[in-house]
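Late entry, S-adenosylmethionine complex.
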Amino acid sequence: MAPRILRRLIAVAPPGVRRMLAGALLDVKGLPARLSDPKRRAEPWAFVHNVGDGDFVAVGAQLVRHLNDHAGLKPGDRVLDIGCGNGRVAEQLSPLLAEGGGTYVGFDLSPAGIRACRRRFARQPHMTFEHLDVWNGEYNAAGKLAESEVVFPAADASVDLAFATSVFTHMRMAGMRRYLAESARVLKPGGRLAFTAFSLTRGREGSETFAFQPFDETSMIVDPRSPERAIGHWRPAIEAAVAAAGLKLTASHNGLWAPPSDYDGGQDLFVAVKG
Ligand SMILES: C[S@@+](CC[C@H](N)C(=O)[O-])C[C@H]1O[C@@H](n2cnc3c(N)ncnc32)[C@H](O)[C@@H]1O
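Prediction complete; structure with ligand written out below:
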């Protein structure tokens, strides 16, 4: 009953409220797992910061496997998690990095997400989290900093592996260009950037779940009320942006969001290297 009322409200609510209600629905769905396993009771609540569908542990583990299989993740790496959300990737990365002497910095525009991460990893000095008050129409419509002005919280040439999972799928191309340039700045020579996207090509420009419609010359969106809810970028624009940032694309995989796919991730995966 409660989930049905929530679903109705979700359909009509403005973006911030919709995300919170959708998060509450996810929390209701996740209650059995949370209650049956004492280790999971302290996991972040999705109504506080909703990073999307799926189980906190299972999705985090899958994303770390992708970083391992496709982006050469190593236990001694210095990693930067761009848009780290509520720490579902951090949760799975932390033991690996602790063992290998690696370090982690995650940043996000959500104060609630960063607070949850800081609480959770308070006793793990190799894991640090930064809040940046960046504007995003879906996640932070009152944000003070434009995406095109963001400076990543990392020194030049200090990072082995930077990654952005399910972040560029909420950013317009101008912001994405800036984030690619910032990735190039902070990566060491030979460092890798892994990111996911909905990359659009003729014949693969939408699906049942993601009914993309035209937005601008580089991108399509699903919800004109909130373009940042889900954004797809034309693949040539992604490739041009990667090259303009001084990065070299070394691999890409089509995710399950639209057939045909060639790996088990939901979104398309790109890996680029700094020369
Ligand atoms: C779908 S969630 C994914 C979170 C995390 N990367 C993960 O895979 O669990 C998208 C995240 O990107 C963050 N985000 C969106 N735009 C951003 C921006 N311009 N800068 C930093 N974070 C951003 C949101 O706050 C949210 O936490």
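Helices lie at 2-12, 15-36, 56-71, 88-100, 111-120, 173-186, 235-244. Will revisit in the morning.
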